[in-house]
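dumping this here so i dont lose it again. seq + smiles for zinc ion
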Amino acid sequence: MRALVIKGARDVGVIETDAPGAPADDEVQVRIGAVALNHIDVWGWRGMAFAKRVLPIVAGAEAAGEIAACGKDVTGLSKGQIVSLYGAKTCGTCAGCVEGRDNFCEDVQGIYGFHIDGFARELINIPARLVVGAPRGVDVIAAACAPVTFGCVEHMLFDNAKLKGGEIILVHAGGSGIGSAAIQMAKSIGATVITTVGSDEKMEAAVKLGADHVINYKEDRFEGVIRKLTKKKGIDVVFEHVGVDTWAGSMFVLKRGGRLVTCGSTTGIMA
Ligand SMILES: [Zn+2]
């Protein structure tokens, strides 16, 4: 089978490698149909975290595919079903995993495609508990955005920030993958969405996704626009992921008791 492999810093290539054998009793074998691209892939390609992994590794942290075979102890999943793949190889037995909070796993082996061999290959055997069946009507490309992009946003907006309908949220970088997911998910529960983008083209796209107010941060300071839009009250929830370029402003626009959630800092962490 073919696999996309990170060989070194800024060095990737397609290789021929052995296909996996039959899945273990608690595993499914998935024929990968689509792999999504995230910032973590860029970081991995650039060479971040090289000290924590042994190269080469197969790329791909977010993917979906079709079940090709099920191990004999697998229930609730069947051959031919489209599934999304969870992006980290967690233990399944620690307190975090047992609670369904795999992100707090105490014995995680790593993130697929970043620390350990990932999903950019034709076939993979993976523990059945790390796959989720796609609802009817969701194709393999849509399912491939679920685990990292939409999963991360769902966790930030609803588990952590406790965003509610009627509240005002600021979504930074509405043209990005998680930004566009956040706009849609916040609108779906009836929040008012203010978003920032860096071009007129992205302004149009953000409106199409449902944003109520779009600020081109290259032309206007978002802090000032928000002060006017909210009549100095401020924002209930800020959805960060930009970092040093926006952090101070994000804190500034929060109302008293407002919440800020973040999942990274694409512009770095130091001013
Ligand atoms: Zn665990």
